[in-house]
Amino acid sequence: MSENANGQVKEVMPNIEVVAKAKRKRFSAAEKLRILREVEACRGSGEIGALLRREGIYSSYLTTWRQQRELGELDGLAPQKRGPKPDPQSLELAKLRRENARLQERLRQAEIIISVQKKVAQMFGETLETPNQDDPS
């Protein structure tokens, strides 16, 4: 209620907008899985009903979502990376190249260490035995 300029009380009607067609609530795969986990955690009497009311869903949704989960359909609804899929051979090649580079660096470090050890041995007048490539022992 409000007063107009003449002091008369005038009843104001609230502005209620009516939607022409109600939109159904859509649940993402993550929301469906979350609700299913919550339902499975319910132990007491009436907990599932309270959960359904809180989420605003019907029990038939649970049945459908459980079937979808068993068939793996909810996993397929997860967001996926867009674009071309990487070639497994190129992934393996890149992995092998990284490993090769790492091993090359370790070999370089080992050669430096061996070189330093030889120089130290020469300074003290000792000779280090180098493994013979032809000797199998």
Question: Features of this protein?
Answer:
single chain; 137 residues; mainly alpha; 2 domains; two-stranded antiparallel sheet; 5 helices; 2 strands; 55% helix; 3% strand
Q: Assign a percent range to the helix content.
A: 40-55%
Low-pLDDT runs:
none
Please report which band the strand proportion falls in: under 5%, 5-15%, 15-25%, 25-35%, 35-45% or over 45%.
under 5%
Can you list the strand order of the major beta sheet? Answer: 1-2
- Radius of gyration from the alpha-carbon trace, in angstroms: 37 Å
SS element count, helices: 5
Number of separate structural domains = 2
- Can you tell me the overall shape? elongated
SSE pattern: EEHHHHH
Q: Mean pLDDT, as a whole number?
A: 81
Explain what this protein looks like in three dimensions:
The mean pLDDT is 81. The chain has helices at residues 29-41, 47-55, 59-71, 73-76, 88-123; strands spanning 2-3, 9-10. The chain is elongated, with a radius of gyration of 37 Å. It is built from 5 helices and 2 strands; from the N terminus they run E-E-H-H-H-H-H. The protein has 137 residues and is mostly helical. The longest helix has 36 residues, at 88-123. The N and C termini lie far apart (106 Å). Strand 1 (2-3) and strand 2 (9-10) form a beta hairpin. Strands 1-2 form a two-stranded antiparallel ribbon. The chain has 2 domains: 23-79, no CATH class; 87-129, no CATH class.
